[in-house]
């Protein structure tokens, strides 16, 4: 499975990214490129990171009409990232269109990126979901509903919080990926995240990959902080 931690490279420039990556010398990482970095640096940043041998989750969370998502994914497939994503709220037709686009954009002999869908953002609380999205079921039920829809659409997994991962694994199987942001060490500030969990909670819940941003990138010693997350994960014997 490789590294259980995906580092969110939420930086505004290539210089900041390279300074950050240089702290890890030759260590191969699994990193996430999100909107902040991609909108500033464009596709070239993907080539720069890939050149250094890191795995990439391109986290652009596509959510648009099926035809637009299909065409966008066709283009993104050419960047040869390992993982891309959409919002499950875009619906089954949109998610299936995303896969079609990825298939069309992947050349023979290349591996199609895995595609996952965001269920409910980890910055959303149950109260907020009910009030602002007018979804009146418990948040866990909404997440499971989106996860089922995602699987039916043929995608490889979901973005959810660690609190929903065990339920999703139980219902949808061990091969269906759960990628969980909102990961914090006990002493870390939650910031804008509402559904947070520690690495050991995530491991016990059967999470596939933990996404960690600020706890590592804003730390005085990012390499040491990264190691703390890895060690906390590895310290849990299942
Ligand atoms: O539901 C979601 C989906 C994506 N994210 C992204 O993960 C990181 C988390 O960063 P932290 O600094 O560790 O909070 C960030 O890039 C988000 O865009 C998410 O948090 N929740």
TrEMBL record:
Domain of life: Bacteria
GO annotations of cellular component type: cytosol
Catalytic residues, chain numbering: 59, 61, 64
Listed GO biological process terms: 'de novo' pyrimidine nucleobase biosynthetic process; 'de novo' UMP biosynthetic process
Swiss-Prot/TrEMBL keywords: Decarboxylase, Lyase, Pyrimidine biosynthesis
Record-annotated Orotidine 5'-phosphate decarboxylase domain positions: 4-229
InterPro entries reported for this sequence: Aldolase_TIM, OMPdecase, OMPdecase_AS, OMPdecase_bac, OMPdeCOase_dom, RibuloseP-bd_barrel
Protein name: Orotidine 5'-phosphate decarboxylase
Pathway: Pyrimidine metabolism; UMP biosynthesis via de novo pathway; UMP from orotate: step 2/2
């Amino acid at each position: 499975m490789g590294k259980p931690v995906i580092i969110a490279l939420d930086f505004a420039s290539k210089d900041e990214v390279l300074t950050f990556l240089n702290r890890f010398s030759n260590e191969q990482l699994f990193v996430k490129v999100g909107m902040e970095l991609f909108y500033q640096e464009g596709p070239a940043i993907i080539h720069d990171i890939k050149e250094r041998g890191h795995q990439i989750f391109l986290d652009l969370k596509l959510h648009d009409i099926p035809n637009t998502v299909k065409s966008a994914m066709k283009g993104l497939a050419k960047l040869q990232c390992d993982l891309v994503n959409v919002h499950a709220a875009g619906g089954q037709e949109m998610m299936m269109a995303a896969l079609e686009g990825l298939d069309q954009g992947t050349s023979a002999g290349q591996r199609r990126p895995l595609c996952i869908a965001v269920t409910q953002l980890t910055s959303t609380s149950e109260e907020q979901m009910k009030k602002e999205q007018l979804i009146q079921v418990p948040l866990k039920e909404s997440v499971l509903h989106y996860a089922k829809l995602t699987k039916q659409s043929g995608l490889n997994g979901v973005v959810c919080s660690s609190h929903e991962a065990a339920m999703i694994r139980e219902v949808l199987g061990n091969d269906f990926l759960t990628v969980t942001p909102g990961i914090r060490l006990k002493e870390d500030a939650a910031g804008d995240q509402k559904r947070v969990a520690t690495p050991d909670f995530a491991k016990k819940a059967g999470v596939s990959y933990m996404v960690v941003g600020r706890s590592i990138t804003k730390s005085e010693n990012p390499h040491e902080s990264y190691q703390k997350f890895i060690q906390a994960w590895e310290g849990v014997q299942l």
